Structure formats: C-alpha cells, structure tokens
Amino acid sequence: MSSVDPAFATVAELSAAFQRRALSPVDVVDALVKRIDTLNPKLHAYIDVYAADARLAAEAADKAIRSGHAAGPLHGVPVALKDLVDLEGRVTTGGSKVWAKRVSAVTATLARRFIGAGMIVLGKTHTVEFAMGGWGTNTHMGTPWNPWDAKVHRTPGGSSSGSGVAVSAGLTPAVMAHSLGCRPDRWRSWRTPLAAGQIAGARGHPDAIHGN
After folding, report:
1. For the whole model, what pTM was predicted?
2. What is the distance between the alpha carbons of residues 104 and 48, in angstroms, rounded to a whole number?
3. What are the residue numbers of the active site?
4. What share of the chain is helix, strand, coil (3-state, %, to 5)?
C-alpha cells in the first residue's frame, strides 16, 4: 500500500512514486476524478472534466513508464488547464458566456509542451471573465468556493480562481494558469489565488514556456 496520497502529493512525489511503482498514473487519475465528482459540485473549481480521456492517457502513461519509455519526470502526472488555455476540439470559454460555445481550433503552445512531456489533462478550471479581476468572482459562469471555509463562500482570488481551488482542495497536483495574452501572473493572476488557497507556485519565464 502506497503512503503517497494521490490527492495531496506534489508533482515530484507523484513522479518518484511512478518510478518506484508505488503508484500508477491510473491510480492517481481514478482517485482525483472520484474527488472531483464528490467535491466539485460545491467548490466549482472545474468548468469541465475530461474523465474518459484522462483515464485513457493514464493507461498509456502507465504502460510507457513500466516499459522504460517514460518521456521524462512529468510523464503520467495530471494537470488542469485554466479555461483560457486552448485545447484543440475543446470549448475554451475564457470565463465568459460570450465564448460559451467557442471550440478551440488549436492547442496552445504551453499546453502542447506539457502534454508532450506526458502530463495528463484532467479538465478546465474556472476563471474570472477574460482574466480581468483579482477577487476570483464570476457573476455569469459562477465563482469557485475557497475550500478553507466550508460554511462561508469566501473569495478564492483571481483571476485563476478555479485553478487555486483545485490545487488547494486536492483535485489536481498541478495547474496551468496564465492571464490573458499568455503572460504569466499579469495583474497577480495566480499570486492572489495562491495566497487565498495557502498553496505555493512557480512562475516560469515567458520565453521558456511560450516561446518557439
């Protein structure tokens, strides 16, 4: 029995557990999807969950890791995308009802790079409308619930509101959160949710993440 909790393990802990066969990507995805099904109706962290596709990707990642064909340390680790990140064939609303049926024609570079490294996309997380707001509220699409207070609907911070809640509540070990224009942390887009959710993050250099 693994001592690693799939819900609250870090990316590094999951990667190490996969390598020593203490956990499989399938174990982790199944556990996270179950938590999402249970908690998301109240927390409202995810706007969409790709459970079936994530399970298929987890099965493929497990086989690759077990056969010695891991793409790298991120292979098999789940990640959630802020609903500003385009994913080909999926709706990207940008937190706005204006884009409620907008299907992405391409996959964003940063998403493509993480998927290429073997990460498994669990789904899309809520955002302030077009990332324009620091409180994390969204009147039209719904405001995520800060999980640190189960009784009072407190601000999750924004604009990456759902992303912060998802990590804080153990609904994903990692998120891909950026602001409009694909520049990390514009107007404290993720620093505010980190503070509200009592979690930590890292700011990647724009050229390293978004460059060609």
Report:
1. 0.90
2. 14
3. 82, 159, 189
4. 40, 10, 55
Does residue 22 carry a pLDDT above 90? Answer: yes
Strand 120-125 with 78-82, pairing: parallel
Main-chain dihedrals φ then ψ at residue 100, nearest 5 degrees: -60, -30
Q: Is 96 exposed, middle or buried (0-12, 13-18, 19+ CB in 10 A)?
A: middle
Q: Which long-range contacts (CB under 8 A, 24 or more apart) does 108-113 make?
A: 108/182, 109/209, 109/210, 109/212, 110/85, 110/176, 110/178, 110/182, 110/209, 110/210, 111/81, 111/85, 111/86, 111/87, 111/176, 113/209
Q: Parallel, antiparallel, or unpaired for β 120-125 and 46-49? A: antiparallel
Name residues whose C-beta falls within 8 Å of residue 68's C-beta, 6 or more positions apart in sequence. none
Q: Each residue of 43-100: pLDDT tens digit?
A: 999 999 999 999 999 999 999 999 999 999 999 999 999 999 999 999 999 999 999 9
For residues 142 and 46, give the distance between their C-alpha atoms in angstroms, rounded to a whole number.
10
Q: Put the strands of the sheet holding 120-125 in their side by side order.
A: 46-49, 120-125, 78-82, 175-176
Residues 6+ apart with CB under 8 A from 153: 143, 145, 146
For the stretch 160-210, pLDDT in tens is 899 999 999 999 999 987 654 445 555 567 667 666 666 766 666 666 655
